[in-house]
Amino acid sequence: MTKKLMKGSEAIGEAAVQAGCKLFFGYPITPQNEIPEYMSMRLPQIGGTFVQAESEVAASNMIYGAAGTGERVMTSSSSPGISLMSEAISYLAGSELPVVIVNIVRAGPGLGGILPSQGDYFQATKASGHGDFRVLVLAPWSIQEAADLVRDAFDLADYYRNPVMILGDGLIGQMMEPVEFYEGRTPIKELEPKIWATTGCDGSRPTNVVNSLFLDPEELELHNIHLKGKYDRMVADEIRVAIYGTDEDYDVLIVAYGTVARVCSTAMEELREEGIKVALIRPISLFPFPYKAIREAAMKAGSVLVVELSTGQMIEDVQLALARSRPVHFHNRLGGMLVSPDEVVAKVKAMLGGQSEEVHHG
Amino acid sequence: MAETVFARPESLADVSTHYCPGCTHGAIHRLVAEVLDELGVRERTVGIAPVGCSVLAYNYFNVDFQEAAHGRAPAVATGVKRARPDLVVFSYQGDGDLASIGMAEIIHCANRGEKITVVFVNNAIYGMTGGQMAPTTMPGQVATTCQLGRDVDSAGHPIRIAEMMATLRTPAFVARATVHNPLVSVHAKEMLRRAFTYQVEGTCFSLVEVLSTCPTNWGIPPVEAMGWLEKNMLPYYPVGVFKTPEGGSREPKPLVD
What we know:
The complex is a heterodimer of chains A (362) and B (257). Chain A is of the alpha/beta class and 362 residues long. Chain A has twelve helices and 15 strands. In chain A, helix 1 packs parallel to helix 6 and helix 3 runs parallel beside helix 4. The relative contact order of chain A is 0.12. Chain B is α/β, with parallel strands linked by helices. Chain B has one domain: Rossmann fold (3-Layer(aba) Sandwich). Chain B has a seven-stranded mixed beta sheet with strand order 2-1-3-4-6-5-7, with helices on both faces. In chain B, strand 5, helix 8 (182-200) and strand 6 (205-211) form a beta-alpha-beta unit. The radius of gyration of chain B is 18 Å and the shape is globular. Chain B starts with 24 loop residues before the first helix and ends in a 14-residue tail after the last strand. The relative contact order of chain B is 0.15. Strand 9 of chain A pairs parallel with strand 2 of chain B, so a sheet runs across the interface.
């Protein structure tokens, strides 16, 4: 299939349709409105359904109901809206329902601003809602990768019976790039029939109940252990990470994800042209986090630079991976301001020149 | 051969419930189950359970069920019905669930005209959590969070859900019933039958508010609780049909001198 020039939001919507998404429930919030707008136009064309909910609270519970029937369903929102969905995300995880949730992150806290940020890393990877659960989180750095990850996300959600989140920012949502959709692609996982779905019971099986309530603590503990088993399997099988520039020796390893990693790759090229040896590692799955890959790549470097659009969130996982075996430096911008390649170049030079202080947590 | 004249409906599971003595949830469950049986839709019905006393409704009905977060049952029901319009979908919600935390979900579900049925059980109190004031608690009624009785100056007046839902222009069937004695229970079943029939025929959203007792949290013995409902709730929450899909819209009336 030929490449098509598409806006990120539309590519995300189209990828969902190609993945068999039949239903979309959403609520307007900037900067992700083009996703529900696209789905409101596209889904009726394939006999699917779009509903503009009265709130993110309602939208996230509508995907719960729809996913409970076994259909493929998606919602999208941006940071404040995801906070409102966090109740349902917890119920979705507890009830083991497969859904895909797109978070086009904006700067916070509170109403914050509408420009790109990575301030929701903690929320996405550590605490998407109350209770002891995990959401599989995938962070694209291009429109093509966003489309590919959305399609994979539906397979992963079905396979693990768990919410999968696509974590992007306004750049991913608004940018236009050529995208290719691979028709007839086979699922990346072997998927079982959804025999647990609530589709009406004719007596040939016991009634199906979609539920996260376990009043008996022994039962709930078993449920928690079962869920933990799924998260362990995700850690074993679903880590996605990209490494650039490790074909040559390097003194500094840059760690960044999403669109920030793209800025860092430009900086890496500039530094290499100047003879400064730098490599880049980019987590694509944020949960599960590529601790081992980062540790192994860092062992070949003298120091590590983490670049984020937050006050320092992913850096905690990088430090966990390194356990103080390498000095970690940090560069960030906040509030919707973007990191420039020049800033990263200057930071690496400062590190190598001894003018940058390493960062310690804990 | 002995003829069976009274049996458990197939739509009701063969289990005993956790409901308190004198609570009418059990009677309302049975009426819903009888209607599902009589309409022949049990095998394609999905119920949505609320948070509240009927949180375990999925154990008591012999149909597929989804457990919703507190107040979100109409949104969950919307998801089910939009995904599978061939299914018969009903939510079963109490007054805290529907009239307090879930007010946005129920209003917008009705306003979109989702073709689902809502069984709204109003017992004027929070039962499961131990007798706190509900949006439907009567003026002066004692609850654990209004121990001197509901003060309408600070807590407002009880919300009449059926009347409020009937103001929406979107076609719907909205009724109120009660089950405090066998005679009125026949009427309640008729209201439920009409509500589910409108859904099965694909006509409209339907909601039946059913007045219910809570002897435990009202602090009144079961038989007296039936009388308390009749004396105190019935005048404020009159039974009847408040809106039918055939009734047309309520155009705004011009103001006159």
